[in-house]
Amino acid sequence: MNIPSQLIEVLDIAMAGFRKENESFVISILHKDEELLQIINRNMTEECRAENGAFGIVLAVCFDVNEDKDALDRFTHSHFKFESTPARDINEELAYYFLPLESGSEKSAKTICKLLEKIFLIKSTQHLDFEVYEVEA
Q: Which of 11, 56, 63, 78 can pair with 72 through a Cys bridge, CB separation 3.0 to 4.6 Å?
């Protein structure tokens, strides 16, 4: 999969715009109008919060245990699971993980695209969209 320039752009915007004040944000990654993943400030979640509160980004990966069985199985048998932190809030219907991303937008975009391809079996960026939201703390 080619890395979409729009993904790199929204990552650049988030890293530049929200880093200075360490603000909360969400980048939604959509495929055919269905949200698959979110990128958030790591300090928005207890599992990934930096001790010193330093800015960073994580990929929030959520699976509906009943509807996303195949994707969840591919995830749990991949290196992505071992690099992720499971959510502390346990819900029988959802499996939630946080995958730390690199500080560079190109490397982060590459990781995201690999996950989309290997876990969600998305081979083309044609139907991907990205939306950035500021979150009130």
A: 63
79 CB burial (10 A radius; 0-12, 13-18, 19+) = exposed
Tell me if residue 100 falls in helix, strand or coil: strand
How far apart (Å, rounded) are the C-alpha atoms in residues 130 and 110?
A: 15
Long-range contacts of 40-46 (CB under 8 A, 24+ apart): 42/98, 42/100, 44/135, 45/87, 45/98, 46/88
pLDDT by residue (tens digit) across 6-45?
999 999 998 999 998 999 999 999 999 999 999 999 999 9
Q: How far is CA 78 from CA 12, 13, 15, 29, 88, in A?
A: 27, 30, 27, 20, 20
Residues 6+ positions from 31 with CB-CB distance below 8 Å: 116, 120, 122, 127, 128, 129
Task: Specify the pTM.
Answer: 0.92
